[in-house]
Write a structure and sequence with these properties.
Length: 285
């Protein structure tokens, strides 16, 4: 592990040399794109700050009296730590997932290049072609270890919540249970669809076009299972309120589905324009 290193992508470096900057706005833009490298870990701090703000909005939806999903009484500022918890459980699960891939690969003699840790996607990167060229047993172990590590984290969170949950605030209890369930459902990554861990595990995949269609069944199953189970455990909680709101009318559900897809696309395209695009690269898992 070396010290923390901060830099910008090559494109940013070309476009914005420090002494050429004319305005503060440009400086902010430049700072905004910083990447941090700490040991193998590589991330853009910006995306995680945005993620925490999104988590806070989720928490605010449950505590603001004027919200349709208002189920818990809490000051808006007190909801901020819960927003941090929401994001930490989501992003932490992804980090543990990639750590699982990384440790498995290194234990089988592969040389790890870096672990990208984005808000929307994370990946353990290996030198070009080395994972695809590794023996099938090593490739399968690397593939399965991500979801397995995430499953262990999810189970630990559920066990923690089962034991200590009643002593926590109800909102925290619900969020930890939901986070545990979402991470347990990380196992859906092993479905054999194009560009997923399942493709590495099974050596074949459902190659549907466009590729994102292949990710739909697992994602829908994951959220129905995780959110449905959390809603059943907390019938007066945030998850139940949200699901009831969504299922109120089919047209409402369609609007939400369309809006979510649009927002996801906008975030993907505009908020995180420097995300790595080579999802299908042979050496990522
Ligand atoms: Zn994975």
């Amino acid at each position: 592990m070396t010290g923390v290193r901060v830099w910008m992508s090559g494109v940013d470096r070309q476009q914005s040399v420090f002494w050429r900057l004319r305005s503060r706005v440009l400086f902010v833009r430049r700072w905004w794109n910083w990447r941090v490298r700490w040991g193998y870990l590589e991330f853009v701090p910006r995306v995680h700050i945005v993620g925490i703000v999104v988590g806070w909005f989720v928490a605010l939806g449950a505590v603001l009296p004027q919200s349709e999903l208002h189920v818990y009484d809490m000051e808006p500022l007190a909801a901020l730590p819960i927003g941090v918890l929401v994001y930490a459980l989501y992003a932490g699960g992804r980090l543990v997932h990639e750590a699982g891939h990384a440790v498995a690969g290194v234990s089988r003699g592969l040389s790890l290049e870096r672990v990208e840790f984005g808000a929307l996607r994370a990946a353990a990167d290996w030198p070009d072609g080395s994972l695809a060229a590794a023996p099938a047993s090593a490739r399968r172990l690397v593939a399965v270890s991500g979801s397995a590590a995430q499953f262990v984290l999810g189970t630990a969170l559920l066990a923690l919540a089962a034991n200590l949950g009643p002593t926590w605030s109800p909102f925290v209890w619900e969020i930890v249970v939901l986070g545990g369930l979402v991470n347990v459902c990380g196992l859906f990554n092993l479905l054999p669809v194009w560009r997923s861990d399942g493709e590495y595990l099974f050596g074949w995949a459902w190659r549907v076009r466009p590729a994102w269609v292949g990710a739909l069944p697992g994602t829908i199953a994951m959220y129905l299972l995780a959110f449905g189970t959390a809603a059943a455990q907390f019938p007066h909680g945030w998850t139940a309120a949200m699901m009831a709101q969504l299922l109120k009318s089919p047209s409402g559900l369609a609007v939400v589905a369309f809006a979510s897809a649009l927002v996801a696309w906008i975030i993907d395209r505009w908020v995180f324009p420097h995300r790595e695009t080579a999802v299908g690269n042979e050496s990522r898992a």
